[in-house]
Amino acid sequence: GEWVSYDVPEDPQQYYSPRALYLMTRDGAGPVHVATDAWLGTRFWSRDGSRLIFQSQDINSGLTVVDTGGRVVRSFANFPDDDGYDIYNDEFLGWLADDRGVAVSTVSSVVLGYLDQRPPVRVEGRGALSPDGRGLLVHLRLYGEGTATDVQEELRYLSVDGDVGLLYQPGLSPGNLVYFESGVAKAWSPDGRKIVMVQTSSQEPRHSLILVDMTTRQVRPIPVGSSLYTAFWLPDSRHLLLNTVDAGGTTRTVMT
Questions:
Q1: 255/72: higher pLDDT
Q2: Which of these, 57, 180, 210, 231, is most buried using a 10 Å CB contact count?
Q3: Largest Cα–Cα separation, the chain
Q4: Confidence of residue 183 (pLDDT cuts 50, 70, 90)
């Protein structure tokens, strides 16, 4: 049957008692003891449900992958960040395609960790994993040494093998600041074939939708009203919900 994970305190009478992690099937088979640690953090099942990744404090201060028998498949010491940042639900980007590894977002980079013996791949920027787990959209903001006009933004595509390619880089002119406002978390269409971002500029057009066809890698900027601030895909992957704001309040519009 399907497996679930749970943890319990070793000593229920102690508030800071170490916690024991167990696996069991939904029909009650097991349980299988996996680990006991002073602190157990985020954990996620693989796409096929055969492996669990969890974060711990004492075990390598990183991430550990186990199978349903509790056997360690791979440990990532001090992963994903040597500075010891904890991983929260919104920073675990997901399992890669075919469960070959995981993608994690740290404060300033995206890290791919593989279940084989390959070293992790780290790329600067904030990332969002495609629905099929075969690649990531990475948003990179580069700061120069001068004024705010030195900011340059890029959208990159990171394959699960660690190859990086430039998707889009907005052209800049003096005094033209360009930002991607809606972030990358909701950029992928549900079918994984398209990407949308909202681009804000200090010059006209103030707001544009940046649509990327991931099959052809074609980028299409679409100028829109100056009050647009977010865009989200609807479940059919064909329509977008646009949120605009003006003196009258917030307006929601569906765009094909």
A1: 72
A2: 231
A3: 66
A4: low
**Residue 79: enclosing H or E segment and its boundaries?**
none
What secondary structure does DSSP assign to 102-121, as a single string? EEEE-SSEEEEEESSSPPPE
pLDDT above 70: percentage of residues in the chain: 77
In sequence order, the 6+-apart residues with CB closer than 8 A to the CB of 69 are 32
Matching residue, tokens 């920027």: 125
ω before 31 within 30° of 0 (cis)?
yes
Q: Which of 70, 71, 69, 73 is nearest to 95 (CA)?
A: 73
Q: Give me 32's structure tokens.
A: 């299988």
For residue 223, give the amino acid letter.
P
* Tokens of residue 165, six digits: 């390619």
Residue 1 has pLDDT above 90, yes or no: no
Output the six-digit token pair for 5. Answer: 């994970």
Cα-to-chain-centroid distance, residue 68: 25
Closest CA to 138 of 118, 116, 115, 166: 166
On whether the CB atoms of residues 136 and 188 are closer than 8 A, the answer is no
Average pLDDT rounded to a whole number, residues 22-36 = 89
* Amino acid letter, residue 240: L
Q: Which two tokens stand for residue 134?
A: 């075969």
Question: Higher confidence at residue 91 or residue 143?
Answer: 91
CA distances to 44, 107, 145 from 5, rounded to whole Å, are 9, 28, 48
